[in-house]
Protein backbone atom coordinates (compact mmCIF):
# COMPACT_ATOMS: atom_id res chain seq x y z
CA UNK A 1 0.00 0.00 0.00
CA UNK A 2 1.37 3.36 -1.03
CA UNK A 3 2.15 5.73 1.82
CA UNK A 4 3.11 9.34 1.35
CA UNK A 5 4.88 11.11 4.18
CA UNK A 6 5.69 14.77 4.51
CA UNK A 7 8.24 16.09 6.95
CA UNK A 8 8.14 18.39 8.78
CA UNK A 9 4.46 18.71 9.62
CA UNK A 10 4.94 22.40 10.34
CA UNK A 11 7.68 24.90 9.65
CA UNK A 12 8.26 28.54 10.55
CA UNK A 13 11.04 30.51 8.90
CA UNK A 14 11.92 34.21 8.65
CA UNK A 15 11.07 36.01 5.47
CA UNK A 16 13.76 35.88 2.81
CA UNK A 17 15.12 32.47 3.68
CA UNK A 18 15.32 29.61 1.24
CA UNK A 19 13.59 26.46 2.42
CA UNK A 20 13.00 22.85 1.50
CA UNK A 21 9.90 20.75 2.05
CA UNK A 22 10.20 16.99 1.89
CA UNK A 23 7.93 14.28 0.58
CA UNK A 24 8.60 10.55 0.58
CA UNK A 25 6.61 7.68 -0.88
CA UNK A 26 6.91 3.94 -0.45
CA UNK A 27 5.98 2.65 -3.91
CA UNK A 28 8.09 4.00 -6.76
CA UNK A 29 5.68 2.79 -9.46
CA UNK A 30 4.13 6.17 -10.04
CA UNK A 31 2.96 8.13 -13.05
CA UNK A 32 3.78 11.47 -11.51
CA UNK A 33 4.13 13.51 -8.36
CA UNK A 34 2.32 16.77 -7.83
CA UNK A 35 2.82 19.56 -5.32
CA UNK A 36 -0.19 21.57 -4.18
CA UNK A 37 -0.74 24.60 -2.06
CA UNK A 38 -3.76 24.97 0.20
CA UNK A 39 -4.68 28.21 1.92
CA UNK A 40 -6.84 28.01 5.06
CA UNK A 41 -10.41 27.19 4.20
CA UNK A 42 -9.64 26.99 0.50
CA UNK A 43 -9.21 24.38 -2.17
CA UNK A 44 -5.99 22.96 -3.56
CA UNK A 45 -3.95 24.82 -6.13
CA UNK A 46 -1.53 22.84 -8.25
CA UNK A 47 2.01 24.21 -8.10
CA UNK A 48 4.16 21.74 -9.99
CA UNK A 49 3.73 18.38 -11.68
CA UNK A 50 6.72 16.10 -12.21
CA UNK A 51 6.23 13.12 -14.51
CA UNK A 52 8.03 9.95 -13.43
CA UNK A 53 10.49 10.34 -16.30
CA UNK A 54 11.51 13.81 -15.13
CA UNK A 55 13.95 14.86 -12.43
CA UNK A 56 12.70 18.34 -11.66
CA UNK A 57 10.32 21.13 -12.54
CA UNK A 58 10.62 24.85 -11.92
CA UNK A 59 8.09 27.63 -11.68
CA UNK A 60 9.29 31.03 -10.54
CA UNK A 61 10.74 30.73 -7.05
CA UNK A 62 9.65 27.11 -6.78
CA UNK A 63 11.68 24.09 -7.77
CA UNK A 64 10.53 20.53 -7.27
CA UNK A 65 12.79 17.52 -7.66
CA UNK A 66 11.95 13.85 -7.93
CA UNK A 67 14.13 10.86 -7.12
CA UNK A 68 11.86 7.96 -7.92
CA UNK A 69 14.35 5.26 -7.00
CA UNK A 70 14.67 6.54 -3.46
CA UNK A 71 11.01 7.52 -3.19
CA UNK A 72 11.67 11.17 -2.48
CA UNK A 73 10.68 14.60 -3.69
CA UNK A 74 11.61 18.03 -2.44
CA UNK A 75 9.99 21.39 -2.96
CA UNK A 76 12.47 24.21 -2.79
CA UNK A 77 11.16 27.73 -2.18
CA UNK A 78 13.63 30.52 -2.79
CA UNK A 79 13.53 33.87 -1.05
CA UNK A 80 10.43 33.07 0.96
CA UNK A 81 7.72 35.69 1.40
CA UNK A 82 4.85 36.03 3.90
CA UNK A 83 2.46 35.25 1.04
CA UNK A 84 4.01 31.80 0.81
CA UNK A 85 2.42 30.90 4.14
CA UNK A 86 0.08 27.97 3.46
CA UNK A 87 -0.09 24.20 3.68
CA UNK A 88 1.88 22.38 1.01
CA UNK A 89 0.80 18.91 0.00
CA UNK A 90 2.43 16.37 -2.23
CA UNK A 91 0.53 13.65 -4.04
CA UNK A 92 1.52 10.70 -6.20
CA UNK A 93 -0.51 9.07 -8.94
CA UNK A 94 -0.02 5.33 -8.83
CA UNK A 95 0.89 3.43 -11.95
CA UNK A 96 -1.01 0.27 -11.09
CA UNK A 97 -4.45 1.72 -10.42
CA UNK A 98 -4.33 5.47 -11.22
CA UNK A 99 -5.14 6.48 -7.64
CA UNK A 100 -3.83 9.82 -6.38
CA UNK A 101 -2.57 9.52 -2.81
CA UNK A 102 -1.74 12.52 -0.65
CA UNK A 103 0.62 13.22 2.17
CA UNK A 104 -0.73 15.06 5.21
CA UNK A 105 1.03 18.25 4.24
CA UNK A 106 3.50 20.71 5.72
CA UNK A 107 2.08 23.88 7.29
CA UNK A 108 4.45 26.66 6.37
CA UNK A 109 4.53 29.99 8.17
CA UNK A 110 6.80 32.75 6.89
CA UNK A 111 7.59 35.28 9.57
CA UNK A 112 7.60 38.91 8.37
CA UNK B 1 -12.99 26.21 -18.76
CA UNK B 2 -14.21 27.31 -15.33
CA UNK B 3 -12.35 24.51 -13.60
CA UNK B 4 -13.85 21.86 -11.37
CA UNK B 5 -17.09 23.13 -9.91
CA UNK B 6 -18.53 21.85 -6.67
CA UNK B 7 -21.81 22.66 -5.02
CA UNK B 8 -22.84 23.58 -2.49
CA UNK B 9 -19.83 25.34 -0.96
CA UNK B 10 -21.22 24.93 2.53
CA UNK B 11 -23.81 22.53 3.85
CA UNK B 12 -25.18 22.33 7.36
CA UNK B 13 -27.57 19.51 8.04
CA UNK B 14 -29.06 17.61 10.92
CA UNK B 15 -27.98 14.13 11.79
CA UNK B 16 -29.99 11.54 9.91
CA UNK B 17 -30.67 13.72 6.90
CA UNK B 18 -29.58 12.87 3.39
CA UNK B 19 -26.80 15.00 1.93
CA UNK B 20 -25.90 15.24 -1.75
CA UNK B 21 -22.68 16.84 -2.92
CA UNK B 22 -22.23 17.70 -6.56
CA UNK B 23 -19.28 18.00 -8.88
CA UNK B 24 -18.76 19.11 -12.44
CA UNK B 25 -15.33 18.07 -13.73
CA UNK B 26 -13.30 19.89 -16.32
CA UNK B 27 -14.61 19.15 -19.79
CA UNK B 28 -12.62 16.39 -21.48
CA UNK B 29 -11.19 14.98 -18.29
CA UNK B 30 -11.72 11.26 -17.98
CA UNK B 31 -10.82 10.78 -14.31
CA UNK B 32 -12.87 12.06 -11.39
CA UNK B 33 -11.85 11.70 -7.76
CA UNK B 34 -13.74 12.33 -4.53
CA UNK B 35 -11.72 13.14 -1.41
CA UNK B 36 -12.56 13.90 2.19
CA UNK B 37 -10.30 16.16 4.24
CA UNK B 38 -10.17 16.29 8.03
CA UNK B 39 -7.56 17.61 10.39
CA UNK B 40 -6.92 14.18 11.82
CA UNK B 41 -6.69 12.15 8.63
CA UNK B 42 -5.73 14.64 5.96
CA UNK B 43 -6.97 14.03 2.42
CA UNK B 44 -8.48 10.59 1.98
CA UNK B 45 -9.48 9.21 -1.39
CA UNK B 46 -13.06 7.97 -1.20
CA UNK B 47 -13.76 6.81 -4.75
CA UNK B 48 -12.67 7.53 -8.29
CA UNK B 49 -14.15 7.11 -11.72
CA UNK B 50 -12.62 6.57 -15.13
CA UNK B 51 -14.84 7.37 -18.10
CA UNK B 52 -17.84 7.53 -15.76
CA UNK B 53 -17.22 4.04 -14.38
CA UNK B 54 -16.38 3.61 -10.67
CA UNK B 55 -12.95 2.01 -10.51
CA UNK B 56 -12.19 1.83 -6.82
CA UNK B 57 -14.52 2.65 -3.96
CA UNK B 58 -12.45 1.03 -1.24
CA UNK B 59 -12.05 4.38 0.47
CA UNK B 60 -15.78 4.86 0.99
CA UNK B 61 -16.12 4.64 4.76
CA UNK B 62 -19.49 2.96 5.02
CA UNK B 63 -22.55 1.89 3.10
CA UNK B 64 -24.06 5.23 4.01
CA UNK B 65 -21.82 6.74 1.35
CA UNK B 66 -22.55 6.33 -2.34
CA UNK B 67 -21.31 8.03 -5.49
CA UNK B 68 -22.53 8.15 -9.04
CA UNK B 69 -21.35 9.57 -12.31
CA UNK B 70 -24.28 9.43 -14.72
CA UNK B 71 -22.37 11.26 -17.45
CA UNK B 72 -18.99 12.79 -18.17
CA UNK B 73 -19.96 16.18 -16.82
CA UNK B 74 -21.56 15.39 -13.49
CA UNK B 75 -20.97 13.36 -10.36
CA UNK B 76 -22.66 13.14 -6.98
CA UNK B 77 -21.57 11.95 -3.57
CA UNK B 78 -24.46 11.06 -1.31
CA UNK B 79 -24.50 10.40 2.41
CA UNK B 80 -27.63 8.80 3.80
CA UNK B 81 -28.15 9.01 6.71
CA UNK B 82 -25.59 11.62 7.69
CA UNK B 83 -23.79 11.56 11.05
CA UNK B 84 -21.77 14.20 12.93
CA UNK B 85 -18.54 12.31 12.21
CA UNK B 86 -19.12 12.90 8.51
CA UNK B 87 -18.36 16.58 9.05
CA UNK B 88 -15.41 17.42 6.83
CA UNK B 89 -14.49 19.18 3.63
CA UNK B 90 -15.22 17.10 0.57
CA UNK B 91 -13.20 17.74 -2.57
CA UNK B 92 -13.73 16.68 -6.12
CA UNK B 93 -10.84 16.55 -8.59
CA UNK B 94 -10.46 15.66 -12.24
CA UNK B 95 -7.58 14.81 -14.54
CA UNK B 96 -6.97 13.53 -18.01
CA UNK B 97 -4.95 10.51 -19.10
CA UNK B 98 -3.08 12.04 -21.99
CA UNK B 99 -1.05 9.03 -22.97
CA UNK B 100 1.44 8.16 -21.83
CA UNK B 101 1.11 10.46 -18.85
CA UNK B 102 -1.80 11.79 -16.87
CA UNK B 103 -2.12 15.54 -16.63
CA UNK B 104 -2.28 17.50 -13.45
CA UNK B 105 -5.19 16.89 -11.13
CA UNK B 106 -7.37 19.95 -10.71
CA UNK B 107 -9.44 20.41 -7.61
CA UNK B 108 -12.71 22.08 -6.91
CA UNK B 109 -13.11 24.54 -4.05
CA UNK B 110 -14.63 21.88 -1.85
CA UNK B 111 -17.87 21.49 0.08
CA UNK B 112 -17.66 22.10 3.81
CA UNK B 113 -20.15 19.74 5.41
CA UNK B 114 -21.28 20.17 8.98
CA UNK B 115 -23.62 17.60 10.46
CA UNK B 116 -25.18 18.67 13.75
Defining key terms:
heterodimer, A: 112 residues, mainly beta, 6-stranded mixed sheet, 5-stranded antiparallel sheet, globular, B: 116 residues, 7-stranded mixed sheet, 4-stranded antiparallel sheet, 0% helix
Spell out the blueprint of helices and strands:
The complex is a heterodimer of chains A (112) and B (116).
Chain A: E1 4-7, E2 10-14, E3 19-25, E4 30-38, E5 44-51, E6 56-59, E7 62-67, E8 72-77, E9 86-94, E10 100-102, E11 106-111
Parallel strand pairs in A: 2-11
Antiparallel strand pairs in A: 1-3, 3-8, 4-5, 4-9, 6-7, 7-8, 9-10, 9-11
Chain B: E1 5-7, E2 10-13, E3 19-24, E4 31-38, E5 42-50, E6 53-56, E7 65-71, E8 74-79, E9 88-95, E10 97-98, E11 101-102, E12 106-107, E13 111-115
Parallel strand pairs in B: 2-13
Antiparallel strand pairs in B: 1-3, 3-8, 4-5, 4-9, 5-6, 7-8, 9-12, 9-13, 10-11
Could you walk me through the main structural features you see in this protein, from its secondary elements to its overall organization?
The complex is a heterodimer of chains A (112) and B (116). By secondary structure, chain A is mainly beta. Chain A is 0% helix and 60% strand. Chain A has no helices and 11 strands. In chain A, the strands form 2 sheets. In chain A, strands 2, 4, 5, 9, 10 and 11 form a 6-stranded mixed beta sheet that branches. In chain A, strands 1-3-8-7-6 form a 5-stranded antiparallel beta sheet, with no helix packed on it. The mean pLDDT of chain A is 93. Chain B has 116 residues and is mainly β. Chain B contains no helices and 13 strands. In chain B, strands 2, 4, 5, 6, 9, 12 and 13 form a 7-stranded mixed beta sheet that branches. Chain B has a 4-stranded antiparallel beta sheet with strand order 1-3-8-7, with no helix packed on it. Chain B has a two-stranded antiparallel ribbon with strand order 10-11. In chain B, strand 10 and strand 11 form a beta hairpin. The N and C termini of chain B lie far apart (36 Å). Classes of the chains: A mainly beta (112), B mainly beta (116). Chain A binds chain B through residues 31-32, 34, 36, 41-46, 49, 51-53, 89, 91, 93, 97-105, and chain B through 31, 33, 35, 42-43, 45, 48, 50, 55-56, 91, 93, 95, 97, 101-110, 112.
